[in-house]
What we know:
alpha+beta; three-stranded mixed β-sheet
Amino acid sequence: MARNEPKSLESLLPRVLARLAEESGKGHSLAPVWAAAVGPQIAKHTSPYTLQGGTLVVTVASAEWARTLSLEEASLCERLNARLGAGTVKALSFRLGG
């Protein structure tokens, strides 16, 4: 049997964080992955809250942020899944928070 090449911690960490977030229901562990996927401007006004059943609930600073991000949901899911593994985030949901 061929042995798999060792994987770097950088490539494994996002998937480990996703698993922890899914198992615990707490999305804050995904904050570094979220920030890398959405960029600093969006990350400044948002944060992952919980990941359950493939839906990532994101806390947003205003209803305007929720509207804006909901228009980009497919693209955001794609960027997140590129880091977390295919199918990890199937949908986004937004909630107002501070």
